[in-house]
Design a protein that fits this description.
It is built from 3 helices and 5 strands. By secondary structure, the protein is α+β, with helices and mostly antiparallel strands. It is rod-shaped, with a radius of gyration of 26 Å.
C-alpha cells in the first residue's frame, strides 16, 4: 500500500477515536498505521506492511488498553469523598426501599441499612456509595 494511505488511515482512525466515547480501540489501529507508513515509504512488501500493522495493533490493544482505561478512569473527586457527609431526605424511606435525598445540591437515590423507617426532611449520614446509590443511616 502507498505510504500516504497508511498515514491517512492512521490520522482518520485517531480522529475517529477522539470523536467516539472512551472505547480506546481505534487508537491502537491508528498508531499502528502511522508506524507502518515509514515501512511502506521504504519499500517493504505489502504483506510485511499488513503483518506489521496487525501485530502492532493487536499487541497494543492486548497489552496497553487495560492499563490506559484504568488510568483514565481515575477521577479527582472519588465517590468515597461522600462518605460521612449529611444528606437531607426528600422522600420517606421505609426500611428496605429506595428513596431520594439531596447532597451537595444534587438529588441522589438512597437506601438505608437501618431497620427503622426514615422520614422526609430528616438528616442522615452517608455510610457507603454503591454506584449512584447512597447508603444512609440516622446520625
Amino acid at each position: 500500500m502507498i505510504w500516504w494511505l497508511w498515514l491517512l488511515a492512521g490520522i482518520l482512525l485517531l480522529a475517529f477515536e477522539m470523536a467516539t466515547p472512551g472505547g480506546l480501540f481505534a487508537l491502537f489501529f491508528g498508531v499502528s498505521a502511522l508506524i507502518v507508513a515509514p515501512l511502506a515509504a521504504f519499500g517493504f512488501p505489502e504483506a510485511v506492511q499488513w503483518f506489521a500493522f496487525s501485530v502492532l495493533s493487536l499487541a497494543g490493544l492486548i497489552t496497553l488498553r487495560g492499563r490506559l482505561l484504568r488510568r483514565l478512569s481515575r477521577h479527582p473527586t472519588a465517590q468515597a469523598d461522600l462518605i460521612g457527609e449529611q444528606a437531607l431526605l426528600l422522600t420517606d424511606l421505609p426500611a428496605g426501599t429506595e428513596g431520594k435525598a439531596e447532597l451537595r445540591g444534587t438529588t441522589w437515590t438512597v437506601r438505608t441499612s437501618s431497620e427503622l423507617p426514615l422520614r422526609t426532611g430528616q438528616r442522615c449520614l452517608v455510610e457507603r456509595v454503591d454506584g449512584l446509590t447512597l447508603w444512609v443511616d440516622v446520625e
